[in-house]
Amino acid sequence: MRKSDTNDLTLLGNQNTEYNYKYNPDILETFENQHRENDYFVKFNIPEFTSLCPMTGQPDYATIYLSYMPDVKMVESKSLKLYMVSFRNQPGFHEDCANIIMKDLIKLLDPKYIEVWAKFTPRGGISIDPYCNYGKPNTIYEEMARERMFKHDMYPEKVDNR
To answer: Which of 24, 115, 129, 130 could make a disulfide contact with 86, Cβ separation 3.0–4.6 Å?
Structure first.
């Protein structure tokens, strides 16, 4: 990575990190994609996501699977971790959390394609696993999003780890 591409990053390598447990999309930072000529996925697995049930105030736990195809900008991973931590005291239904994460990253990155799959731990005997995606309008990625949505979870995995 060129040195000039990291000048705006304030969190990476910072030893004085403050954790904000209030929803804060402004914490997200980006850097320039060095391989714009390639289509490729960047995938983050976030197994310790927490938010609050908006009805009971009890914590909800999930693993968030976030995959995107970058265009010009990429998300810096430490800022993404701090952003995810900011949901800790944020009330939100499971579906809201997944869509908010996706929309915040679309606004930040303007990616070619992005998908978020949130797999929440069951409460009351039911797990809720919202999936949302987006492809840049008027591109092949818009069609890709449509196809992936239509085929999403056609062959669900065996759930034996919850």
So the answer is: 24
